[in-house]
C-alpha cells in the first residue's frame, strides 16, 4: 500500500502584457491598446472517495499548470491558464517541504472540497494601463508574474470510525470479515495482514466504518514491524476495539504493552476510548479461562466483551454496543494537527505594487521592487522613452527618493533585478 509520497507542483506563469497602439484610418487619436496577460493556472488538491492509496502519484510526481496567454492589441486580454485538480484519497495530510527539508502542516483533506496548493501568476498589465494625461504614449508593459512552486509531502491516514488493534493473530481479520463485506487475508500465522483494511458494518439500520490495523508488536512506535506505517492509520479512529487473544497466558501484559506503544507513538492515540474484545471463545481453553481473563483485565477499567468471530458468539452484542459508544463520541474529537495554514495566500496587486527595498551592495545600489523588475523585463532599454517612463515609475514608487537618501550620484550603478543601469 502506497500511503506516503512527495510531489512537486508548479502553477502557471501569468501571460505578458502587450505594447500596442491603435492605428486606423480616420482615427488620429487611437492611443495605446495593449491588453493584459491572462493569469496562470492554479493547482488544487481534492478528496476522491474512490481512492484508497497514493499509488497514482508515486510515478506522476511533477505537476505543472498552464501559463496564461499573452495580451494582444485592441485591448485583448490573454486567456486564463487551465488549472489542475489532483485527486487524493480522503484522509490525506498535506505538508510543505521547506528549503531545509523541514515540513509544515498545510491541510487535512477530509472531503471533496478543492484546496489551493499553488497560486497561478498574475497576468502582466498592457501598455493601455499606463496611459495618463501626461503620458499618452506609454511603451511599457509588464511581464507576467511567476506561478508558485512547492514541494509537498502527502501522507494518507485512512478515515474510519473504529480501529481494530491488537497483537498479531488476535483475530482482527476474522472479526472484520464476519461483521462486514471486507475480505482480508486470514491464515494461522502472524502478520497475515500487511495493509490496513476497511469494512462497513451495518447494525440497527445504521452503519459505521471499521479499519483493521495490522498486528502491532513491541517497539512499533519506533518502526518495529512496520509500526509507523500501521500506527498512523489508527490516529483517525474515534474508538479503538482492542482485541485480546483469549488463550493468552498474560492478557493484562499484552494490553498494557500495546497501549504503551500507542501512547509512545502519539499521546492522543493512547488516550482514545477503548473497548477490550477477548476473542477465540470457541476454543475450549479460552472458554475455561474466561473468568481468569475477566479478572485480569478489570484494573484497566474498560468495557470488556467476549466473542468468537468463528462461531459468531457475542459479535452482534459487540457491534450494537460499539454503535452506542460511537454516538457518545463527537465526530470532531480528533484534530489531526494544528489549524490549517493556507499554503497559497496571494497578495493583492495594490499591496505588492507598492513594496520596494533599497540598499547598498559594495559600490552598487540595489532596488528590490517586483513591479519595476517586471516592467524592465519587457522594456526596450535602447528606447529612451522607455527609460524615462521607468524612471517615472521609480519616482512614483518612492525609490528615487530612497536612492538619493542612500547617496546615489550620477554615474553610479543601480541594479534592479537582473538589469544594471547607470544613474543619471
Radius of gyration, whole Å = 32 Å
Give a quick account of the main beta sheet: strands, pairing sense, barrel closure: 6 strands, mixed
Q: How many DSSP helices?
A: 12
What is the β-strand count? 18
Element-by-element helix/strand order: EEHEEEEEEEHEEHEHHEHHEHHEEHHHEE
Mass-distribution shape: elongated
The main sheet orders its strands as: 10-11-9-12-13-14
Helix fraction by DSSP (H/I, runs of at least 4): 10-25%
Uncertain residue ranges: 187-192, 220-227, 333-347
Distance between the termini: 65 Å
Describe the 3D structure.
Residues about 185-190, about 220-225 and about 335-345 have low confidence and may be disordered. The protein has 12 helices and 18 strands. Helix content is about 25%, strand content about 25%. It is α/β, with parallel strands linked by helices and about 425 residues long. Strand 10 (about 195-205) and strand 11 form a beta hairpin. A 6-stranded mixed β-sheet has the order 10-11-9-12-13-14, with helices on both faces.
Provide the fold topology.
Elements: E1 4-10, E2 43-47, H1 55-58, E3 62-64, E4 84-88, E5 92-97, E6 103-109, E7 115-118, E8 149-156, E9 162-166, H2 172-179, E10 197-203, E11 206-212, H3 227-234, E12 239-245, H4 251-265, H5 267-270, E13 274-279, H6 284-288, H7 290-297, E14 304-306, H8 315-327, H9 349-352, E15 357-361, E16 364-368, H10 370-378, H11 384-397, H12 399-406, E17 413-416, E18 419-422
